[in-house]
Design goal:
Helix content: 25-40%
Low-confidence stretches: none
Mean pLDDT: 92
Radius of gyration: 14 Å
Oligomer: single chain
Shape: globular
Order of helices and strands: EHEEEHHEH
Strand content: 15-25%
Largest sheet: 5 strands, mixed
Number of strands: 5
C-alpha cells in the first residue's frame, strides 16, 4: 500500500491523497494531532466543528497524523501497532520523521520506497 508522508498541512495531504487514490474518496478520515495534554486528539478531517472522535470505535475510518502525533505514536509502539495499518497521511513531517516512518515500516518487514520533490526527500 502507499501512504503520503509530507511536510505540508494535513488537510492538503488528505486532499491530494484522495485525488490520487491513496486515501479512499468515500471513507471518513480522522486527523490526530498532539494536544497540550501530551495526548493525541482525534477529529473528523472534514468536520469544521472539530468535535472529538475515537479512532478505536470508528474502525472503518482511515487515519492521518501530524508530526507531533507521529512522534507520540513512535514513542508508544503498542498504540502505533494497533492503528498503523489505517494510517494513510503523515503531515507536517520533517525529513528525519519521514525516515522514521520508513524505518517503522521496514521493522514490520514491509518493502518500502521513498520519493519526493526535493533533495531532502530522497
Amino acid at each position: 500500500r502507499s501512504v503520503i508522508c509530507t511536510g505540508d498541512n494535513a488537510l492538503t495531504g488528505i486532499s491530494i491523497g484522495r485525488q490520487c487514490g491513496i486515501v479512499s474518496p468515500d471513507t471518513r478520515v480522522l486527523l490526530g494531532e498532539l494536544g497540550n495534554t501530551g495526548e493525541i486528539g482525534w477529529r473528523d478531517a472534514d468536520d469544521d466543528g472539530k468535535g472529538a472522535v475515537d479512532p478505536w470505535t470508528d474502525m472503518e475510518s482511515e487515519l492521518a497524523v501530524t508530526q507531533g502525533a507521529w512522534r507520540y505514536l513512535d514513542d508508544n509502539r503498542e498504540v502505533l501497532d494497533g492503528i498503523a495499518h489505517r494510517l494513510v497521511v503523515y503531515a507536517r513531517m520533517k525529513p528525519e520523521d519521514k525516515i522514521n516512518v520508513v524505518k517503522y515500516f521496514q521493522g514490520e518487514d514491509l518493502v518500502t520506497g521513498m520519493c519526493g520533490d526535493g533533495g531532502n526527500d530522497c
